Structure formats: structure tokens, C-alpha cells
Amino acid sequence: MAGDIMSQSEIDALLSAISTGEMSAEDIKKEDETRKVKVYDFKRALRFSKDQIRSLTRIHENFARLLTTFFSAQLRSYVQITVASVDQIPFEEFVRSIPNMTLINVFEVPPLDGNILMEINPNIAYSMLDRLMGGAGGSHSNVDNLTEIETKIMTNLFERSFDNLREAWENVAEIDPMLVELEVNPQFLQMISPNETVVVISFNTIIGETTGMINICIPHVVLEPIVPNLSVRYWMQTNTKEISPEQSKMLESRVKQAKLPIIAELGSSDITIEDFLTMAVGDVIPLKQKIENPLTLKVGSLPKFTVQPGKLNNKMAVQIIDPLKGGDEDE
């Protein structure tokens, strides 16, 4: 029992049994030690592993950052959206957890089957609407009294905001979210069976001085074809993207056009600081380089070739003799 979560009715029954003497603390301890069968609630079937839930959390943390940027630009107000929790629960439990009157966007995500729900708390929704209409971002309307103009404005906003999900999911699956309908009463939603497992991602949302929740509900049937893509191993494999031949040719042509500094060193010498401070025009500095030896040509700071000095079209020039060994020829 130490690892199980007891409901309130079970707790009440247990306390009642202890208070009436029907069961003692020692009996409970013995029962716990001898119990070999663990209670499993089939209504709360866990379809996703902890690793997959962590992957979904990472995806939607990125989505939250994209939403923050998008809504900040659209509403021209302070917006902060962060992931509060990611849970897998029965669909019936999700419906019971949201207000009776709220704003629910139903999206298709082809090529995946099924629909995704985006539930926006009415306070948040009307704060957005007020900002779009030029207001200060207050929340004072009733969700069941949406006018056609308000409905159109809000559906356009949320439809464009859900485009960010495409970018957030691009490393896992190529999806194309499309708004199907806008609903205000969750009791009218008959998407899937009440006992079907869904993943609910809850976002803490702040718009100006208004706070509330945005929930995204993803049924298991939607994620089932791409469940293997939610593993850490898949993410590590897809982090390195291959370059196409066209991209490789374009990159090569741009690298060939890059300019590099070329330096031909005549030689070097060691002098004292006193000599350096007293140098004047006409002074001669003896170099360690012999006149019959080739010079060193540097590309950037790396010595690459031996060269000999000369003239070309009345300009000083050098002629390359040999590449220098150990001059990083592959760079």
C-alpha cells in the first residue's frame, strides 16, 4: 500500500475500521506484508512510458516558447506561457477537469489519424480578444455569448497559433494542423471513448494581468503511429541532419568565394626594446632569413607553401614552389 494512492473513500473506510476496532494497525501492516497482488485500474491504463512522456514534455516546452513569441507579437502585451504538467489520463477525466463553458478548438493533424483538442480558459481567451480589439486585455464576457465576429477573430488567432506546433513537432513527425471546429461545451465532444487514454499538456498562461490555463489533449490513437519516434534514441539519431547534394554544392560554391588573407614573410629578427624605441627611417634590420632560401607563405596564420619573390606586371609577387608538410593541407 505504500506505493499506491488511496482514494478518499478508501481512506474514510480504513479510518472507520480502525476506530470501531474491526481492524488494528498491526493487521494493516501484516496485510501489507503478505499482499502479492497489486490493484490495477484499467480505466487509467498507462500507454506511454516515462521516457516518452519526457519527450512529449520537451516538445511542448519548445511549443510554449513559440506560443509566447507568437502571442506577444499578435497581442502586443506581456505574455508568458510555460508547461505546468504532462499527464496521461482517461478522456472522461479530462472532460470533467475543464470548465462547463470554455473555449475548445478541435484540430486535425494529418497525416496522423484523429483530432487534437486545444482548450483555452475563458479568462485567457477574452483577454486575448480584448487586446486584439484595442482594449487593455480585460476579461468580462461570457463564453456562450460569442458573436460571429468574435468567433471569427478568435478562430483565426488560434488557427495561426497552432501552426507553431508544426515547428515544435518537426523532429518527430511532419504534421499539418487544421482547425475543424470551435466548441464551448465539453459535454458535446464525442471524439473518442470516455476510457481512452489521452495525454494532457497543461500550460500556465499569463497575458498582461490575466492568468489562466491552456490545455492540449492528444488521444493515444493520434500518437500511436509515432510512439517509437518519442524515444531518446530516435531523438539522438535525428539531431544530425544529412546535407542534400544541392545544399553541398551551394555550400562549396560559397566557400570558394570566401576571401582569405595571404602573407609572404620575408624573414624575422630579434631586437631589444631599446633598439625598437630608437628606430628611424633608413635604419637596417638584419633578418635570419638567407636571401637564397625560399620564403614562407601563410594563409591566415597557418604556413602553407614555400615561395620565391619576384615581379608580375610591375607588381611585387611570389611564385609557389612547394606545399609545406604539416601545413594542414586538408583545412
UniProtKB/TrEMBL annotation:
InterPro entries: CheC-like_sf (IPR028976), Flag_FliM (IPR001689), FliN-like_C (IPR001543), SpoA-like_sf (IPR036429). Residues 254-324 form the Flagellar motor switch protein FliN-like C-terminal domain. Gene3D superfamilies: CheC-like, SpoA-like. SUPFAM superfamilies: CheC-like, Surface presentation of antigens (SPOA). It is found in: Bacterial flagellum basal body; Cell membrane. Keywords: Bacterial flagellum, Cell membrane, Cell projection, Chemotaxis, Cilium, Flagellar rotation, Flagellum, Membrane. It comes from the Bacteria. One of its GO terms (molecular function) is cytoskeletal motor activity. Pfam families: FliM, FliMN_C. It is a peripheral membrane protein. Its main location: other. GO terms for cellular component: bacterial-type flagellum basal body; plasma membrane. GO terms for biological process: bacterial-type flagellum-dependent swarming motility; positive chemotaxis. Belongs to the FliM family. This is Flagellar motor switch protein FliM. The gene is fliM.
